[in-house]
Amino acid sequence: MAVYTQVSAEALSAFLARYDAGQLISAKGIAEGVENSNYLVDTTTARFILTLYEKRVAAGDLPFFLALLDHLAAKGLPVPPAIKDRQGVEIQELAGRPACLIQFLTGVSLSHPTPAQALAAAEAMGAMHRAVADFPLNRANSMGHASWRPLFEQCGRDLDRIEPGLHDAMGEALDAVLDGWDAQALDACVIHADLFPDNVLVLGDRVTGLIDFYFACTDYRVYDLAVMHSAWSFDASGETYAPAIGAALVEGYERHFPLTGQDRAAFARLAMGACLRFALSRAWDWLNTPADALVTRKDPLAYWRRYIAYRDGKAGL
Ligand SMILES: Nc1ncnc2c1ncn2[C@@H]1O[C@H](COP(=O)(O)OP(=O)(O)O)[C@@H](O)[C@H]1O
Ligand SMILES: N[C@@H](CCOP(=O)(O)O)C(=O)O
Q1: Exposed, middle or buried, 160 (CB in 10 Å: 0-12/13-18/19+)?
Q2: Residue ranges lining ligand 2, Cβ < 6 Å
Q3: Among the atoms of ligand 2, which is closest to the Cα of residue 214?
Q4: In which band, very low, low, confident or very high, does the pLDDT at 4 lie, cut at 50, 70 and 90?
Q5: CATH architecture of the region 109-311
Q6: Single pTM value for the model
Q7: C-beta 104 within 6 A of ligand 1
Q8: CA dihedral angle for residue 187, residue 188, residue 193, residue 197, rounded to 10 degrees
Q9: Could you read off the pLDDT of 173-211 as tens digits, one per residue?
Q10: What is the CATH number of domain 9-104?
């Protein structure tokens, strides 16, 4: 369960009093998610998401994320902007954390997407990449390729506690993937960088929400598709690849951005990089999250297996 910071009813009522948002009826911690604390808040006038920003979200990056949400929402994309208080302020402090009241979107988070849902979600990602063409801000990818080796070194030999031999195998994988990464002549733009099925809300096959933009950054555009491909096209253990989902993602994305020969040639390396990024952040969390923490740790090996599938040509375009 991702509720790292507890908020008292008194503190939340005082927080809500800054907004034209009615009076507090109830607030429930949301189990899903691993990065931030999220509450479902009902008031006498509406339902909201309250997010308190934790570990990997730097307060200084919040203006970028919120400006991006406002930009995308203004273009009609189904993203949830932050609510402004009566003074026009979006970023507040609550229980010692930076906090925002966010528009609630209907729909359910996906856990087992169908090809039709994958197609719709990748089409929505393509629409997002179109919509950022005139977004004026940039943000370096704090979880991008330059961060992978330092994170690997921080994990160190403890990686072998996750699986014997993992340290050396990951070291070799990083050597292979990072060699020439910077030199790829690929388009860059603001990307989501974490568009997993649980960050897409749907009703049936219709996308009603793209959420959790707190890793959004400027990076290779097709890397965003590679992240999505790695997250959507495998079962939870990372052992079984679902080519029909992979194909649906590409079909949906190509409705906005047909893949070029260069995109296709780069795709396996981008997907392997995505796998290392999530294997490493999960490994770090696995090794550093107390066993009794109120959060479900995600399995790093489920991502390492995906890496092997792309490396060995068992998954891909
Ligand atoms: N704007 C929103 N509208 C509806 N539900 C949301 C919204 N934002 C988050 N949620 C719900 O909260 C869960 C956790 O949110 P998420 O942003 O993924 O958390 P984290 O940043 O911790 O990963 C989501 O899976 C979804 O169920
Ligand atoms: N999607 C990442 C972790 C980030 O969690 P999220 O809940 O913010 O998407 C993973 O699965 O490792």
Answers
A1: middle
A2: 33-35, 194, 196, 198-199, 212, 278, 281-282, 298
A3: 8
A4: confident
A5: Alpha-Beta Complex (3.90)
A6: 0.95
A7: yes
A8: -40
A9: 999 999 999 999 999 999 999 999 999 999 999 999 999
A10: 3.30.200.20
